[in-house]
Amino acid sequence: MTIRLVTFDALHTLVTPRLPIYVQYSQIFAPYLGVLEPGLLKHSFKVALTQVQKKNPAYQGDSGAEGWWSEVIKRTAIGAGANPQAVDSSLPQIVPSLMERFSSRQGYKLFHDSLPVLRRLHQMNIRTALISNTDTRMLSVLKDLEIAPYLDSVLSEAVGIEKPDAKIFQLALALSMKTELVPMEMQDGVHIGDELESDYHGARAAGMHALLLRRAGPEGDGERKEEDENLEGIHVVNDLWGVVKWVERQTT
């Protein structure tokens, strides 16, 4: 077996918030809404994000990604105890500020192993791609963090579907094949991400190999871990160098 394509999730796999998201929200909220209790803000963001994702998957809606995030931001602030009238009156200032922050290195940073591993895989003549349930601002983030040239990117907002739908993995394969002389099949690729259902089981169901990322220590704090998750039989790596080692083992 030879691996010819390695696809990555974005958030908590290649990139991570420069500060916790609730902290960055708090910084933008403070001039308009006062200082909200961090614990409430952290919980409220998780609830708001889950609710809006369920209501409008893949950033669907009349107002696109900005309208989608505006709803998340509004629910987050009110859920954390902000005055609803103050939230409504300040959203025209808060939403653009947060949208801009999370469009660049101001909001995100690379993990220490992201760029070296992408470079190493390219030295091994392996194609690399991104499959992410994010909006198209992620393209600006990748460019600002200087890893865009290494990645063919498939983003859920752009294609209208989300992981774990098999079609989004198939689209990544098709995109990567455009410059390949020899056709690739799904089993020629491996996907890496931190979400057991969307990344690992989604890729496996689509016919790809999969590795679940579980970083050690504080670096793994943001990963999508479910309580009492069963990792029996799951291929787990603790950093992206583990991906390189796994790929090398498949080709020897």
Major beta-sheet overview: 6 strands, parallel
Report how far apart the termini are: 9 Å
Indicate the percent of residues in helices: 40-55%
Number of helices: 10
Strand order of the largest sheet: 5-4-1-6-7-8
Average pLDDT taken over every residue: 94
Query: Residue ranges: pLDDT <50 for 5 or more in a row?
Result: none
Q: What are the secondary-structure elements, in order, as H or E?
A: EEHHHHEHEHEHHEHEEH
Give structural notes.
It is a single chain. By secondary structure, the chain is of the alpha/beta class. Helix content is 48%, strand content 13%. It contains ten helices and eight strands. The strands form two sheets. Strands 5-4-1-6-7-8 form a six-stranded parallel sheet, sandwiched between helices. The chain has a two-stranded antiparallel sheet with strand order 2-3. β4, α6 and β5 form a beta-alpha-beta unit. α1 crosses α4, α3 packs across α4 and α8 crosses α9. The termini are close together. The mean pLDDT is 94.
What are the defining features of this structure?
252 residues; alpha/beta; six-stranded parallel sheet; two-stranded antiparallel sheet; 10 helices; elongated
In short:
The chain has 252 residues and is α/β, with parallel strands linked by helices. Helices cover 48% and strands 13% of the residues.
Topology:
Elements: E1 5-8, E2 15-17, H1 21-33, H2 38-55, H3 64-79, H4 84-101, E3 108-110, H5 114-123, E4 127-132, H6 137-144, E5 152-155, H7 156-159, H8 166-177, E6 189-193, H9 196-206, E7 209-213, E8 236-237, H10 241-250
Parallel strand pairs: 1-4, 1-6, 4-5, 6-7, 7-8
Antiparallel strand pairs: 2-3
